[in-house]
Amino acid sequence: MSLARVLADEDEEDRQGGGSSPAHAPLALWNWWTLGLLLVALAPRLIYLFGISNPENAGDGLYTDVYQHWQIAYLTKEIGLSHGLRLWDLKGVEYFWGTLHPIVLVILFFVTGSTDIVLARIQSLAFGSLSVVLIFHLCRRYWNLPVAVAATAFAAFAPTSVFNDASGMLEPMGVSLSLLGIWLLPKRSLGAGIAWGLATAARPEAWLSSSGLVLASFLRRGTVRRWFLMLLGFGTVMAAQMAFLNARTGNPIYPLYWNFLANAAGQWMKPLVASQQSARPWFIVLWAIATAGLLMTLWRRPRSYLLLLYGFGSWAIGLFVILPRYLGKGSRWVAWLTAGVLLAGTQLTWIPIETAYTSTASPWNTDVATGRYIASIFGQPDYRGGALNLPPPDHPEVTYSLVHYGGLDGRHFISQLYDPFYYLPPGYHYAAHPVTAGTLLQCWLSTTKTSIFVMPDDRADYLAYAADHPAWFEMVGRVADYGWTIEAVHIPAPSPQTCAQVALDARAGGQ
Asked: What is the pLDDT of residues 385-437, one digit of tens each?
């Protein structure tokens, strides 16, 4: 059951059939058959979303990035669009994952009039269901109906697929666009290029995978005849995306740089813990196997090589293409039985999945309570006309709770990420520069109209400043779970000239 044998057998079929026409008449992507497949894929995902999981809890602490993506889209709608076409975030990672997901989510917010996290989860499962449909059509095109049915069954019903697709993460969008590009070739090469370009805007990994698919597509004669349209589609999307990223971040390859190049240089990724280091040899083995398969696929280049390069269908190929060749046509029932047993066996993974998801209920309840509590304070008449100054790191669930359960408007939110110390040299602290740093903090709090300051216990600069100016701060609450003190701010506003001068003094190292 080697990959070389699969590729060799496919090449033999290509030569027998002229090397260009598929073994089966292709189905149109949109027809009643496809609609049925789409409904089959949607059913378990919708059942899980609304019948098993808490639709509002995408996995607090397990899938925290879902709320980070929601936060970017929500703040883009509330704040970013009023500053031109600009993404917005409290944590400063608005361009880290790409631009397409937040833009699509913003459109959904406007169309539906809602900003519920459920929209992000529905968007995710819709793209995941589209991937199931595309897997069926691609496997049927390149192999046969049994391969397509088996691969589709796993894609539609495997617990990991259902859970991930209903989570609200980015991957389903990027995967479906990549598969769509493969399906569009060779006859719709312009659309394929556009789809692969959009995939790079949906997921940083697609900067590599889509570029690889574009290059690999030139290795077959049927695609080379249409190279111009494919490059036109891919190049146009990439040029527009890179121009936008360069205008907003100063780096035209911002997601690629921070997800791969900067990580490789150790500028972003945290050091590996012991458990991760112990797993490294296994990942090296898997990488070696994957690399060998990739090179073999590029060498043989069967009709299905783009799909194989992208990594789909290998087990289904083995069961329904290779096995009958070795054991004869009578082994087909063995393949179906094996596929059924494997699919049934995968359902056992619901046990660890549900165990992990159930563990998120407690942090979710904490975040909901925290959001309600802070909102109840900020919503008081003395404070709601100002700004809510929030800690930035890793609490987008609290932001969601402030909006969804607390009824607050995101335009009132100020991130502590961009406080005065963000613009000063590392190691510049209030204790060493109380006059200059203190005036900078005073200017920042007054110009942002901060009325409620959520002060973390680990921000020594804030604590020391508040201790030195007790008349300007009034403790009105406490979030013990996160070590946050909630302070009402009554601070006099310095003159603009004072703020401008102290900023110059700070850059010069003034006291």
From this structure: 999 999 976 799 999 999 999 999 999 999 999 999 998 988 889 999 999 99
The answer as to whether 367 is a domain residue is: yes
Are the C-beta atoms of residues 184 and 210 closer than 8 Å to each other?
Answer: no
Q: Is residue 168 part of a domain?
A: no
Q: Are 196 and 214 in contact (CB under 8 A)?
A: yes
Domain range spanning residue 370?
A: 362-507
Residue 441 lies in a domain: yes
Question: Measuring CA to CA, which residue among 160, 74, 175, 79 is closest to residue 117?
Answer: 74
DSSP output for 190-256: HHHHHHHHHHHHH-TTHHHHHHHHHHHHTTSHHHHTTHHHHHHHHHHHHHHHHHHHHHHHS-TTHHH
The whole-angstrom separation of Cα 383 and Cα 215 is 57
Answer whether 363's CB lies under 8 Å from 429's CB: no
d(CA 105, CA 78): 13
- For 22-51, the pLDDT digits (tens) are 445 455 566 777 889 999 999 999 999 999
Q: H-helix or E-strand containing 477?
A: strand 473-479
